[in-house]
């Protein structure tokens, strides 16, 4: 045998050994490859589920933000006039006082009557304008005292009125879209004292 033949045989044996070892390695690689895709698939499914949950949470959060913004805008539209209304209320008070001050002076002549009529017309026009913007006057005479809408200026005995009811209004209150702008300043009926019993008799 020549050296070339020996070398050829050696190469052939190495190739056989490599060929026999390769199927075993391929089988081991295939087993691990099959296991790896299954675990990768599970990991990807879990990740997809997590992304979907995050997306749903984000959508819900966006809807809540949108709803809150709509409510804030609605409130801003409804109550934007509040400061303006507060500034106008003294005008209404003055017009009402002007009408009240002419009461009982009808004998003074036509001038007072015409002034009163003009002021009443102006007051009615003004109150109508306020009403268009949902400004409502509170004139609670005869109603039970409500600390949420009334400010008690004093309490007086009033035998013909219910205790804790409003017997007089010092200054009328106002609401804007059912929100109190100014409480009514009122005089409240005091409950009558119970008759004292003479315990020594």
UniProtKB/TrEMBL annotation:
Gene3D superfamilies: 3.90.20.20, Head domain of nucleotide exchange factor GrpE
UniProt-listed SUPFAM superfamilies: Coiled-coil domain of nucleotide exchange factor GrpE (SSF58014), Head domain of nucleotide exchange factor GrpE (SSF51064)
Keywords in alphabetical order: Chaperone, Cytoplasm, Stress response
Protein's cellular compartments: Cytoplasm
Function: Participates actively in the response to hyperosmotic and heat shock by preventing the aggregation of stress-denatured proteins, in association with DnaK and GrpE. It is the nucleotide exchange factor for DnaK and may function as a thermosensor. Unfolded proteins bind initially to DnaJ; upon interaction with the DnaJ-bound protein, DnaK hydrolyzes its bound ATP, resulting in the formation of a stable complex. GrpE releases ADP from DnaK; ATP binding to DnaK triggers the release of the substrate protein, thus completing the reaction cycle.
UniProt-listed PANTHER family: GRPE PROTEIN, GRPE PROTEIN HOMOLOG, MITOCHONDRIAL
Protein name according to UniProt: Protein GrpE
Organism: Marinobacter salarius
Lineage, opening ranks: Bacteria, Pseudomonadati, Pseudomonadota, Gammaproteobacteria, Pseudomonadales
């Amino acid at each position: 045998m020549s050296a070339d033949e020996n070398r050829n045989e050696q190469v052939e044996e190495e190739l056989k050994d490599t060929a026999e070892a390769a199927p075993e390695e391929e089988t081991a690689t295939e087993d691990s490859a099959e296991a790896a895709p299954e675990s990768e698939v599970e990991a990807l499914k879990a990740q997809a589920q997590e992304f979907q949950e995050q997306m749903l949470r984000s959508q819900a959060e966006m809807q809540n933000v949108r709803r809150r913004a709509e409510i804030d805008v609605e409130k801003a539209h409804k109550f934007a006039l509040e400061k303006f209304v507060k500034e106008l209320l003294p005008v209404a008070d003055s017009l009402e006082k002007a009408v009240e001050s002419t009461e009982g002076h009808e004998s003074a002549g036509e001038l007072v009557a015409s002034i009163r009529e003009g002021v009443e017309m102006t007051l009615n026009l003004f109150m109508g304008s306020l009403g268009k913007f949902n400004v409502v006057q509170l004139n609670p005479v005869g109603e039970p005292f409500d600390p949420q809408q009334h400010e008690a200026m004093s309490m007086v005995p009033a035998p013909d009125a219910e205790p804790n009811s409003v017997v007089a209004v010092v200054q009328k209150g106002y609401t804007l879209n059912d929100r109190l702008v100014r409480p009514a300043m009122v005089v409240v009926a005091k409950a009558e004292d119970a008759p004292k019993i003479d315990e020594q008799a």
